[in-house]
Amino acid sequence: MTKVFIDGSAGTAGLRIHSRLENRADLELITLSGEARKDPAARRAALNSCDLAVLCLPDAASRESVAMIENPAVRVVDTSTAHRVAPGWAYGFAELSKLHRAQICESMRVSNPGCHATGFISIVYPLVGMGILPADTPLSCFSLTGYSGGGKKMIAQYEAEGREDLLSSPAIYGITQSHKHLPEMQVRCGLSCPPVFSPIVDDYYKGMATTVPLHLSQLRGVSSLHDVWKALSDYYAGQKLVRVAPEGADGKLYGAGKAGDDDLTLTVAGNDSQLTVTALFDNLGKGASGAAVQNMNLMLGFEETEGLSLS
Questions:
Q1: What is the reported pTM?
Q2: Which of 57, 60, 263, 308 has the fewest Cβ atoms within 10 angstroms?
Q3: Quick one: which of 309, 301, 295, 304 has its CA closest to 53?
């Protein structure tokens, strides 16, 4: 029986990963009691007795957990920011390329993508890789998320009785352009500079819509909106968890409607002069715990969608 330990199982991502895994017959979950979760000796023992550890911790604590692992057979999926651009860590976004998928399957250390970064990279990485979008193009991105993306503290703020009125409307944050996902967005897409990034949190629990606006004049080898749609459709053809919506946006409202699912849908809209590409997904699904379970499945040789919910 394959043994899995979730270090940080009391957090938002950890709880969701645990709920996805607890009834699986092919896994044995190593669990620690409330007090033992904070005991370094108990954590060290659990980390070294499992086959795979999923780290759902702040950056410093994730680095600490990795340093505790002395058993060379233990594999790791880290959901924090700590190792997303670190040497020696595979980047856990299998749909980006055959190489990414192979590295996840073979690696001992896999870094789970960030939620906003998942949306941006799903759009920009293939366009750069296909030579359609020059890597030195100045880009912008705006990304709408539910408040669960901020973890327990933000959830408590939004769900508190008598909360401040400001929380009832969308709020732009990260305005100093120092958001923790920016290095990941730049490095993983091979960009010359990071995008101008506007994350927005709104008064709903989960779901994400990440949009990259483009002028066709910025692109190479395409001459229409259809060409961009087809390039992305062909790139992700056959993938189980990333898809491109049918061509021809019908003008309806596009909200962050992927809540509850573990897949991601790209929508290409606009005209033959200016366009947007939007990634719709669950910030707690493909943007966090769903991606972690997918990466764990690939690392352990299971079907990649085992335990996931597809729309």
A1: 0.95
A2: 60
A3: 295
Model pLDDT for residues 151-205, shown as the tens digit of each residue: 888 999 999 998 998 899 999 999 999 999 999 999 999 999 999 999 999 999 9
Mean pLDDT (the chain) is 94
Radius of gyration of the chain (CA): 19
| 6 contacts 56 by C-beta, under 8 angstroms | yes
Kindly list the distances between the CA atom of residue 162 and the CA atoms of 103, 167, 308, in Å, as whole numbers in the listed order. 48, 11, 36
CB 90 within 8 A of CB 104: yes
* Given 50, 56, 105, 115, the catalytic residue: 115
Asked about 115 being catalytic, the answer comes back as yes
The tens digit of pLDDT for each residue in 25-46 reads 999 999 888 788 889 999 999 9
- 3-state per-residue secondary structure call for 150-200: HHHHHHHHHHCCCCCHHHHCCEECCCCCCCCCHHHHHHHHCCCCCCEEEEE
